[in-house]
Amino acid sequence: MINHFSVLGIKPNANEDDIKKAYKRLSNRFHPDKLLGASDDEKVQAEAQLQRVKNAYEVLSNPKLKSAFIKDFNNVIVTDPAAAMRELWDQFYS
Fold first, then answer.
1. Consecutive 10-residue averages of pLDDT for the chain (94 residues)
2. Helices 40-61 and 16-30: crossing angle, nearest 10°?
3. Locate the J domain: which residues (predicted)?
4. Residues 69, 55: contact at Cβ < 8 Å?
5. What is residue 46's three-state secondary structure?
6. What is the pLDDT of residue 77?
7. In this predicted structure, what is the pLDDT of residue 34?
8. Given this model, what pLDDT does residue 59 score?
């Protein structure tokens, strides 16, 4: 399960303004139009990261989706810690 808070780089107790600021900062950072000197691979990776940022914002900016996400996230039991660590690693270093 993707942690939308970590995708946006915010704490779980972040308010709506913090969520919006994080979204704007990251969407500007990963937007393909802003990557003028980037290679095709870098643009593809940035596009994938931008999609993660958009998904995280959609969930966290909607109060119903946010509360459902927090409820589900608190009930997650990690059955394969190595896979969970690989997922985290890939989110930040792929």
1. 88 93 94 81 88 95 92 72 82 76
2. 170
3. 3-93
4. no
5. helix
6. 61
7. 81
8. 95
At 87, which amino acid appears? E
- Domain of 11, CATH number, reads 1.10.287.110
- Domain of residue 26: give its range: 4-93
Number of domain units in the chain: 1
DSSP state of 16: H
Going from the C-alpha of 33 to that of each of 24, 28, 36, 59, the distances in angstroms are 14, 9, 7, 24
- pLDDT score for 66: 93
User: Do 79 and 30 form a contact (C-beta atoms < 8 A)?
Assistant: no
* Beta-strand runs (E) in 28-90: none
What pLDDT score does 56 carry?
95
Count of CB atoms within 10 A of residue 34's CB? 12
Percent helix, percent strand, percent coil in the chain, to nearest 5: 75, 0, 25
| Distance of alpha carbon 21 from alpha carbon 85, whole angstroms | 27
